[in-house]
Design brief:
2 domains; about 20% strand; globular; 10 strands; 6-stranded antiparallel beta sheet; alpha+beta; Cathepsin B, Chain A; two-stranded antiparallel sheet
């Protein structure tokens, strides 16, 4: 999917990986289908999801399939980044005893609040004072792109079959979001040019959603290593399980290989919880 991958972004101090993975997949689908590059709003997607689809004022996290399915059902148009820019909340702190945030909106000029969804907060006087959250009308012209269809797949009882199915779908240009258990080897990808080592039974540090953008079989690594040798670089070892899946993360350009990481097929087989695909946009 390299010709259709949009810019790597950074989710900052918020657990919004699913919003970035889903948005990136949708951007690639638009580019593939309409031959136009767009930047869509992760802030808008995460706001809608955590206010309505998977509601909660505290505690980040979002199920990729939940967001995609609601987008299809409601014909929700994901509008553009410049209509509601993402807030990385670099100063956000957690007030642990009361499960609340503070400083989420520091130095951020747009609609915001100390919540997961960052809707606006306002009060009005009637017979009594009423306060509450409101969703800003950032898209009065109803701009953006919708999803025609989305499907989820992955069966832990037949993982190899679905890994091969993933390879076929990627080769056909299909946007995929992978949700898997994150481990220390993945976090250490930046120390190894984005290559993720494989360690059987490695402890899970939580869940992570990423945009799955490519693959390379071990049989094709010889060509890559020949180019690396010409450049004075060390050869890449074979990926455990037969090769590598290539993912685009939302930890910024300094993560991995310019924001990308290479997961051994066996890591994908061992740690994947779900795959979600986007099938058509309009």
């Amino acid at each position: 999917m390299k010709p259709y991958i949009t810019c790597v972004k950074h989710q900052g101090k918020r657990g919004t990986c699913t919003a970035f993975a889903n948005t990136s997949a949708l951007e690639s689908a638009v580019w593939w289908q309409y031959q136009v590059q767009v930047a869509l709003s992760e802030q808008a997607l995460y706001n809608r999801a955590r206010r309505q689809w998977q509601p909660g004022d505290f505690g980040d996290g979002l199920v990729s399939h939940t967001a995609f399915q609601h987008m299809v059902t409601e014909k929700f148009p994901l509008y553009f980044e410049n209509q509601w820019n993402y807030n990385p909340s670099p100063f956000r702190e957690i007030l642990a005893p009361i499960k609340a945030y503070k400083a989420s909106c520091k130095n951020y000029p747009e609609t915001c609040s100390d919540t997961t969804h960052q809707s606006g907060f306002a009060c009005k006087d009637s017979n009594w004072k009423e306060c509450g959250f409101y969703v800003p009308d950032k898209n009065p012209a109803n701009l953006g792109f919708r999803i025609q269809k989305s499907s989820q797949y992955w069966d832990p009882k037949d993982k190899l079959y679905y890994l091969n199915w993933t390879r076929v779908y990627l080769a056909a240009g299909g946007p995929i979001v992978i949700t898997l258990s994150i481990n220390q080897s993945l976090l250490a990808a930046s120390q190894h040019d984005g290559m993720v080592g494989y360690l059987a039974g490695e402890a899970s540090l939580g869940l992570l959603a990423m945009h799955l953008v490519g693959m390379i079989d071990n049989g094709d690594l010889a060509k890559v290593n020949a180019l690396r040798a010409d450049a004075g670089l060390a050869a890449i070892a074979d990926g455990v399980g037969g090769g590598y899946m290539i993912v685009k993360n939302a930890f910024g350009n300094c993560f991995g290989d310019g924001g990308f990481a290479y997961l051994p097929y066996q890591t994908v087989l061992d740690n994947t919880l779900a795959m979600d695909i986007v099938d058509g946009v309009y």
